[in-house]
Every structure is written in C-alpha cells, then in structure tokens.
Write a structure and sequence with these properties.
Blueprint lengths: L1 E9 L2 E7 L4 E5 L6 H12 L6 H8 L4 E2 L17 E7 L5 E10 L6 E4 L4 E3 L7 E10 L7 E8 L2 E6 L6 E4 L6 H10 L3 H11 L5 E5 L4 E5 L6 E2 L5 H14 L5 E4 L8 H17 L3 E5 L3 H12 L7 E9 L2 E7 L1 H9 L6
Parallel strand pairs: 3-17, 3-18, 12-16, 16-17
Antiparallel strand pairs: 1-2, 1-5, 4-7, 5-6, 6-9, 7-8, 9-10, 10-11, 13-14, 14-15, 18-19
Amino acid sequence: MFKCVRVKNFRAITDLRVDGLSRVNLFVGHNACGKTTLLEGVFFLIGATNPKLPVNVNTFRGFPYISPAVWPTYFHNMDVSIPIDICAEDAKTGEEQRLLIRPRYEHLRVDRMVSTVGGVASSSKDDGAVNGLELEYATSENPSDKEQSSVFVRDEKLVDEGTKTRLSGTFVIPLPPDLRVHFSEVQRKKRVHEVVSLLKEVEPAIEDLRLLDSPGLLYADSGATELIPVNLMGGGIMKLLSTALAMLNTQDGFVLMDEIENGLGYSSQRKLWQAIFSWAQRLNIQVFASTHSMECIKAFSDCAEAELFGGEGKLFRIERKEDKFRAVEYTRELLAESLDSNWEVR
C-alpha cells in the first residue's frame, strides 16, 4: 500500500504529489484538474514492467490507434525532452518505487498508423522521429537494479520488449471490462456467492450468475423461466458487477476506478462504497477512485464515518491553477462540515 504518490510531466500534470494516502482514496475536483491522469499514473507504476499499459489505457479511452503523432501526447506539453516521472512510497517499508518513461527513437520510416485492435489508417513519420516509449523501473532498495522495457511500432505492428510480469492492479473505467474473463477467475476461486450477495442488495431477485459457453455471455438467474444476460439488466448492475469482480480478482493489490458514480443512484452508491470498504480491508486492497458527483461524495462520507471503517477512507481535492497542481486532504470532520454547509467540494 502506498502512503504517497508523485506524478511529474505526465499529460496535463506538471508536478502533483499526494501525501497521507489511506486504504480507500477518493479524488475530486473540477474537470481537467488531473484526476484521471493521476489514476493512470498510479496504474503505470503498479504495472511498471508491462510496457503496453500506456497503450492499453488509450485503448480503454476509445483511442486504439498508435502513430508517431500519438507518442508525444503522453508528455506534458508534448515536450519529449523531459521524462515522465512517477514514484510512490510504500506505507509499511518506506521503500520508494519509481518509473521513468522516455521517448524511443528509431531511424526507420513507418508509413501507416497502426491500431491496437487490428485496424489501420494512413500516416507517416520521418527518420529519427519518436517511435515508441522506453520504461525504466527501479526501487530505492535496489536502485542499480533497473528493469527496462519498451513499446514501439515495427512493420505496422505494435511490439513490446522487456519484462511484463509485474502487475497487481485493475483499472475499472466507465466502460465495463470483459466480464467473462473476470467472472471465470472468480468462479475458479469459488467466490461467485460473494458477487451475488452484493448484487442482491440492488436487485433482490438475482439468485445466481452463470457463464454459458454458447454464446459466451454472462447470465443472471432472477427466478424467471429463462436466464437473463446481465448486459440487459441496466448500468447499475453492470457497475456493481464489474467492481465486485475487479476487487475479488485483485487481492493484495490495487484497484483504480475512474468516474465511479456512473450508472448508479445514491442508494446504490452507498451499497457499493460499503462493499468497497469491506473488501478493501478483507482482501488487503488499496483503492484509488475519482468522481464528479456530490451524491457519490456523500455516500463515500457516510461509509467512511461508519465505525467499522474509521480511518480507512480519505478524500482529496485536486486543485489546478494554470500549470500548478496540489492535492488538498479533507479530514472526515471537514468533509462532513462541508457537506452539511453545502460547500463546494468537487
């Protein structure tokens, strides 16, 4: 678990440090203040030896293409002369983990834009231009033992080189993940009943979940004469299900959730936060989440105030003034007072 995180020169963020992290952390703030970028930075760090993560995150965001024009967009102001620098300190050992991301130069010509999902679009680049990213990961315990990897385009295909085994986190975004893959793992661990128990809080009729080989969809048994595809049961069910599967598959790791409120009303948000706090404790997971919703903040505050979860949750407001960033921690008392007085927290 991290006690502080610092992100420098990544997308819009020049330099942002967050101290005093807890087990469950909620980030709020105006649009373009850096909330999503902060979550992405943490995701890159916890999977630092997987060079495809930066590409995967863009794919999650609905931008699956890679071209010479895309690589500089990871760097602040597209200035590739300054590396992206992401570091965090372990809460228990004090060890610092650090990831540096630099541009990769290659003296060859690429005449096509390559899609990470198989499509192509025409583009070109000149010799010596940026054609990828180089990642370097090290810890303060063994600073000379640097793990290096890279991702780039070769012969119109995305190529990655270097180690890829270190990953102990899941990124849950507004778009639902591949439920089949996550559910299969939960089923293998015999934990389906825990997912069903959470969903019953929102839809009491749900009795079971089943993954059918044909047509390869996840179905819910709600007592009707036939099973119902969970994709047809509404955004609230999908949000709860994707979060439950992510946490049950990430024991002793990290779960990151962007725009956690999407598709959920207040009562469902409160039940979701109760589950997140409970599972984070039981499964030893550190949670990083973001929201724009006052209802979500109120639901979070209500759960954080509960005696069972005392001290386990913190809210941070990310503030941006031009190119200056800072994280302001709201104590539980200040947050409660702000909500009671209708102060603007977001």
